[in-house]
Amino acid sequence: MPAPELPGVVSAEALVQTGKAIASVQLPSGEIPWFPGGHTDPWDHVECAMALTVVGQVAEAERAYEWLRTTQGADGSWPLQVRDGVVEDAGADTNYCAYPAVGVWHHVLITGDEEFAERMWPMVRDAIDFVLTAQHQRGEIDWGIGEAGPTGEALLAGSSSIHQSLRCALALADRVGEQQPSWEVAVGRLGHALRRHPEAFTPKTRYSMDWYYPILGGAVRGEAGRRRIDERWNDFVVDGLGIRCVDDNPWVTGAETCELVLALDALGEHDRAVAQLAAMQHLRDPDGSYWTGYVFADDKRWPEEQSSWTAAAVVLAADALTRTSLGNGIFRGEGLPQGLPVENASCCEYEHTR
């Protein structure tokens, strides 16, 4: 399959090299850490697997998904952090546990592999069922689940990402003929909370992710999404460099910039999206990898690491903008079910999921 190419920004050859840089970090088990010797979390692991599929490294991507399938806990979760197979943080993040649904659906879209869909379906089903034990009546989903149960704290960016994961899980369920009506209700309630109940989420307004993730996750689109982007554009965007991770630090980060690219693409803001992908290319290393961030006040790259997930975000952003792979529309929500609409109903009408 051809790799994406965006003339004047990044070539197909360069993105194939980036895919090889990601694959070079992968362990024999299939685990993809942040960098050689670094730790692994499920979300960033999936992001890397998605990028590998886009650039044609399908076998490596499938090894990554197989690692998820064989390391999943009996309750459907994965630990927050492992290093070369050793658990370093046994807690469970609901966003992390939901995200494999996005990766699996993306892989099925690109490869058309029905056997892969069937093999991965139980993993996705159990993960989503686990995540939804943390959903509140209003719709928001707590960010973590520990031994004592859900944390009681929902985060806007995390719940926004889960919104996309639920929609991908529903698409996969339909593909394998396993309808999940309770998930349709859950994604409708979650979208309602994201659009109408900002008070449900712990404020993290310093972080750029809270700015663009409701758009990236598919809950907010159209004119409302464009207004949201315009309101804080000057707080986060640094001309020619990308976007700040937090609004009060002189630090731009590549992955957040590429996620903004995906959000802008979902709004039809193609020119602004291309400009941001071009702006962050200063983080590219000659070996095809990408540095995580840059402190422009000090003219220093920081942290001093080339993160696999930053490289992955570049590949996915380029694919979305160029409409190259069969999975290029996943962040635009193309073909994804919406869930049951609840905008005009009382939140109290919906059964508590706990």
UniProtKB/TrEMBL annotation:
InterPro entries: 6-hairpin_glycosidase_sf, 6hp_glycosidase-like_sf. GO terms for biological process: carbohydrate metabolic process. This is Prenyltransferase/squalene oxidase-like repeat protein. It comes from Saccharopolyspora dendranthemae. The lineage of its organism: Bacteria, Bacillati, Actinomycetota, Actinomycetes, Pseudonocardiales.
